[in-house]
Structures are given as structure tokens and as C-alpha cells.
Amino acid sequence: MTAGLPDDSQQSLCSSIVPCVHLLLSEPFPAMPFHGRYLISNEWNTIMTASFKALSGSIIRSLPLLALLLLAGCGASSQEDSVLDRGGNTGAATLSLDISASEITNGDSVTLTWNSSQASACVASGDWSGSKGMSGREVIQNITSDSQFVLSCNSPDGQISDYATVRVVEQPTAPSLQFDSNSTNVMQGDSVILNWSASNADSCSASGDWQGSLATSGSRQIDNLQQNSLFILDCRGAGGSVRQTVTVNVQPPVPTEPSLSFSASQTSVAYNGSVTLSWSSSDADSCTASGDWSGNKSVTGSESVSGLIADSSFTLECSGAGGTISRQVQISVSPEVSNGTATLSWQPPTENTDNTPLEDLAGFRIYYGTESGNYSESVDVGAGVTEYVVENLSSGTWYFVVTAYNSLGIESAPSDEVSKTFN
After folding, report:
1. Which has the higher per-residue pLDDT, 36 or 406?
2. Nearest Cα residue to 315 out of 291, 295, 279
3. CA distance 135 to 64
4. How far apart (Å, rounded) are the C-alpha atoms in residues 328 and 200?
5. Which of 235, 295, 366, 384 lies deepest, with the highest CB count within 10 Å?
6. Cβ atoms < 10 Å from Cβ of 214
7. Minimal CA–CA distance to 197: which of 173, 178, 176?
8. Residue 310 CB contacts under 8 Å (≥ 6 apart), including other chains
9. DSSP assignment of 331-366, as one string?
10. Around Cβ 74, how many Cβ atoms within 10 Å?
11. What is the C-alpha to C-alpha distance for residues 213 and 293, in angstroms, rounded to an integer?
12. CB–CB of 50/74 below 8 Å?
């Protein structure tokens, strides 16, 4: 009720004010917008909607303000006659029912979710039942046929309902696959044939040590296998997928046993003589010398051995993936002949290398041997000697040089080399 007005007067006043209010509020307001809605009901079910705008400052135009105040006082005689909703909602009851899936396979489950506003006393029917809350969530399990779920709730405007349906479809048959090889153990470089057959499948694809899309049945030859191989086959259909694998073990080829030829330029030499050893191997990675020579050797080569003074044995062993092979050469050496002599003579030096007089000459040394530049023997003959006889020389060629040394032990460079051959 509006203060100071009787009911009849209020009804008459409001009947005339409402159109005026609508007219007044249709004038534009020069301020920041604020939109709202007023729903006014009285015993004559008069509904009036008015939009307004509020000033951002503290002053509102007097005429729209008066209209708003008059409108707020009309029809407020009881809660039943007048409803004021500032949120833009007419107050109607709502109900929504949602389902997690509209199509499932036999025996699967679905989840129902519902929400309502301004409703009460909700009841389930159809393929579920019982009283339900105003909102909730429920799992329906083991569904074996097409189903409809209905939810009805009471509201001030009467009963409201919503429903959801689910369709049960047949579960597709899972695909099956047979996949094998004509051999699972082959030698390196060999081939295999892969065979396969799938049922309830639409497509197949290869992976691992083969690739590509394949028909659902067939065979394929895989050539020149070099190492252990894994062949994977996946086939797919409406009912899912299936995978099978085939492993082929590849054995390396049986390695060839190495071969070796080994010889000497001669098998009998004079005392302190020399020979040339020659060898050649195949299917070998390395060779090693032993006996009267030593060291790692190439798989093919030759080498001179000198200074032989006794019977000698030379062994060569070569190894490869196929094993090890060994060969030996025997050399016979003639006994030493000790009747050879060589007489050496020389002129003693008189100056040092810096051209100063040599005043402390202490002696001479003779170096000799059976290889030029490589002297295995030596003799110190002292000072004051300019000739010396070297005895007991064996057959062959002997090479000689002489050096001088002073009291400090400093030795000169060797003389020119001379030689002598004994038969």
C-alpha cells in the first residue's frame, strides 16, 4: 500500500501513473548506463516493464526520479500481488537432465546429471525410478537395451519434466590375426617369407623391420637379411585392433679358416749369414712372429734376418675369424771358421777438431763386424800403436773402423770404413 492513499485511490492513481512513468522514463539519461527490469503485478494482472538509466554522479533529474518513486509505491499491497526482480529473471522454474552418452554397447553404463531451480519433489520414471534431489548425479549400470530416463519435478507453475535417452548397439567382433614366417633362423644374406591372415579387420600396417600399409591377408618375401629382425603387424577393425610379431634370428656366415704360405730365401747359410723370410696369408686379420724372430707382422710381407750364427727356427702364426694357422721355417747355419786375420794400420791424429795441437792422446779403438756400419765387436789397442792384427775372423765379409780418444775419454769420429772378405 502507498502511504496516505486509500485502496481505491491507489488503484486509480496507479492506473494513470503507469503510462506516464513509461513515457517519462523513455527520455534519455545523460549518464553511465545501468539496465534493469521491474515486473509489477496487481489484482488486474497489469504488467509494465520500464528501463532506466542512473547517473554516475549524485544528482538525478527530478522528473524521472519522481516517476520512479511513484511507480515503486503502486501495487505493493501484498507479496502475492507484486514481485520485484532486479536480476532480469521472470522467476519461472527450470529443470535440465543430461546423459553422458547417447550410444553405448551392451552392458555399459551412463551417468545422469540434473539441475533444477524453483522446483521440488522430483521423481524419476521410465528406465529409472525413485525420488531425486533438486540436483544430482547418478550412474546407471549394466544397460542391455535402449532406455529412456524421465525426471519430473513440481514447481509453482505446475509440473515440469525433462528426459534423456540412450541407444544400445551391438559390440563389434574383435579382429584376429595369424602371422608367421617360413623360417625363424637363417644365415646372413638369406631371405624369409612372411605370411598373414586377419579376420574382422579392415586394414593392416607393418612396422619394425618392415614398413607400409598391407592387405588383411597376404605374403611378402624379405631378402638379404643382415641381422636379427623383428617384424610387427597391426590389423584394425570396428571391434578394435590386434598385433602379432615375428622374430627372425640371423646367423653370421661360417668364417673361412685362414691360409698361410711362409718360406725363406735359403734354408742353409754360412756362419754369420742372412736370409730373407717371405709370407702371405688370406682370411687373416693379424700375424705374429715367434722363435728366432718376434713382433707383430702384416698379413703379407717379407723381412731380412742377418747375423745367423746357429741353426734357427722362425715361426709365423696368423689369425682370423675362422681360426688360427701357424707355419715354421728352419735355417741351418754352418760352423764358424776362425782362421781369418786382418791387419789394420793408421796414422795417429795430431790436432783436435778445433785445430789446436793434440797433446793428450790416450789410445785407439778398433770396431768391426759383418754388417757395414753395424759393428758387433771392438778392441782397445792403447796409445802409441799404429798397426793391429785382428784374428779369428770367420768366413764372410768383415768391416773395420778406428777411433782415437784423449785422456778425458773423449772419442773422435771413426775413420773411413775398410773391409775384408774370407772364403
Report:
1. 406
2. 291
3. 43
4. 72
5. 235
6. 19
7. 178
8. 333
9. EEEPPPP--EEEEEE-PPP-B-TTS-B---EEEEEE
10. 23
11. 64
12. no
Instruction: Kindly report the number of other CB atoms within 10 A of residue 269's CB atom.
Output: 20
Distance CA 100, CA 129 (A): 18
Q: What is the pTM of this model?
A: 0.36
Q: Which domains does the chain have, with CATH numbers?
A: 7-73 (no CATH), 94-169 (2.60.40.10), 176-251 (2.60.40.10), 259-333 (2.60.40.2470), 340-422 (2.60.40.10)
User: What's the grid cell of residue 110?
Assistant: 551412463
Place of cell 679358416: 257
Assign residue 304 a region: left if phi > 0, alpha if psi is -120 to 50, beta otherwise?
beta
- CA-only gyration radius of the chain, Å: 60
Q: Which secondary structure element, helix H or strand E, spans residue 295, and what is its range?
A: strand 295-297
All residues at 6 or more sequence positions from 58 whose CB lies less than 8 Å from its CB, including other chains: none
- Residue 304 C-alpha cell reads as 731380412
- Asked if 195 and 181 count as a contact pair (C-beta separation under 8 A), the reply is yes
Q: Return the C-alpha cell found at 183.
A: 623360417
pLDDT digits (tens, 9 = 90+) for 375-397: 999 999 988 899 999 988 888 89
* 221 has pLDDT over 50: yes
Q: Given this model, what pLDDT does residue 337 score?
A: 64
Residue with the three cell numbers 775372423: 393
| Residue pair 114/150 in contact by the 8 Å Cβ criterion | no
The answer, yes or no, to whether residue 81 has pLDDT greater than 50, is: no
Q: Where are the alpha helices (DSSP H) in 282-341?
A: none
